[in-house]
Amino acid sequence: MARSSAEDVDGYLAEVVEPDRLTALVRLRELCRTELHGFEEVMAYGMPAYRRPGGEPEIAFASQKQYLAFYLMRPDVREGFEDRLADQDMGKGCLRFRRPERVDFTLVRDLLRATATAPAPSPSPGETG
Hints:
CATH topology: Aspartate Aminotransferase, domain 1
Low-confidence stretches: none
Mean pLDDT: 91
CATH architecture: Alpha-Beta Complex
Number of strands: 6
Shape: globular
Strand content: 15-25%
Radius of gyration: 14 Å
Number of helices: 5
Largest sheet: 6 strands, antiparallel
CATH class: Alpha Beta
């Protein structure tokens, strides 16, 4: 799916036509909503994202053309999972699952828990709170 113009996550999911992808994306959403206590669910960069109130997105997911993507925008959390991420199809901050049935929901849950318990990221220089 190209970048979505959906206004909310329900609208985003309504655009997904492949049943197996939709099932995996709904499960990713459920995990995010369960594990990311106090985070806001928003649309950012054309995909569902999760951020602390007033902060930048720390987690996102998307249905891309060739794979499902799970975006972990916290380098500190990624570094803590280097061993478990070593055998994964991973870009700089994107965990790719080429087949929906191969999404490692246990790994995703653990990444979400680590994100939720990590301190909020510091604002970039020049940003105000």
